[in-house]
Amino acid sequence: MTGMVLAGLGCWLPPTVVANTDLMNTEMDSFVRRRIGVVSRHRISQGAATVHLAAEAARLAMHAAAVNAVDTLILATTTPDRLCPAGAPEVASRLGLTGIPAFDINAGCSGFLYALQLARGLLATSAGTVLVVGAESASTMVNPADPSTAPIFGDGAGAAVVRRAEQGEDSTFGPTAWGSDGTLADAIAIPAGGSRQRVPAPGRGDADLFLHLRGPEVLRNAVRRMKSAATEAAEAAGWTLDDVDLLITHQANATISTALAAALPFPRERMPSNIHRVGNTAAASVPILLAEAAAQGLLAQGNRLLLTAFGSGLSWAATTALWPCVASLTAYQKETTP
């Protein structure tokens, strides 16, 4: 298996912070804090979109990796600027990389880990370096009037530059366990806007244009699938859960994280979390958490990390990482939207 080395990390959160108290009454605020874990989230400014966030995070990751070019760019997102074209080519052009292969993938909140696995395949064949970005304008896919989704999601982007390991060099990332279950496609879905249903159904207003969640079903499957994938990836790497220093999980909500910790089992104090500040940022969740943890000095060289995520599709993934000495840059300021 071709080794894949993490060369640099970056994350970008837009400057506008929306607190629970800006969206809901005191009683609802208390419920959201307790069950979902969100106190505030970042929101994109008017005129900005997913490609803007992606480009900013990607720029920081490239700076952290001390590179001014990559061979391929992969953008994982559930909230593309448009149905057509893909956003990745525009992200590449914003970075001065016009001409390189660039494409989007949509694997829901598992998208970044899916993209890392695709990057591994590219590094084994044609590419020397790959820029992997998870970016979401998740606030645009929820109905502001829907209390089951509106408080959960935030906007942001995280990015990683990965390169092919040199001979004799340790790989940062180990085995990946991933999968999907299309029989539950409607458990996390936006009904309208695609080829199956271009416009909302008669009599439903614009409800079909926004995200719908079957909460209890999502909770059960998220815990079961992330537990299975995380255990499989660790075992494939020759690790037990006792060998893992930190578990980096998709920041779906506090209830899922707590249930996963109990199911594995794994100490909750060794599961970094930022959902209280940023909300659920979907495909951007794992790289943002990883970049912030690295920038805050929570990760030491040689730490054994287990990464796992679950999202729409349904989709899930997990991989291991032996933490290298790597730079991470984070920023929280206005998007560049020329």
Write the topology of this structure:
Elements: E1 4-12, E2 16-19, H1 20-23, H2 26-36, E3 40-43, H3 50-65, E4 72-76, H4 88-94, E5 102-105, H5 111-125, E6 129-137, E7 155-164, E8 173-180, E9 188-189, E10 212-213, H6 215-236, E11 246-249, H7 254-263, H8 275-278, H9 285-295, E12 304-311, E13 315-322, E14 327-331
Parallel strand pairs: 1-14, 4-5, 4-6, 11-12
Antiparallel strand pairs: 1-7, 2-3, 6-7, 8-13, 9-10, 12-13
According to CATH, what is the class of the largest domain? Alpha Beta
- Helix and strand succession? EEHHEHEHEHEEEEEHEHHHEEE
C-alpha geometry = globular
How many angstroms separate the termini?
42 Å
As for the number of domains, it is 2
The proportion of residues forming helix, as a percent range, comes to 25-40%
Low-confidence stretches: none
Biggest sheet architecture: 6 strands, mixed
Please name the CATH topology of the largest domain. Answer: Peroxisomal Thiolase, Chain A, domain 1
Strand content: 15-25%
Structural class: alpha/beta
CATH superfamily of the largest domain: Thiolase/Chalcone synthase
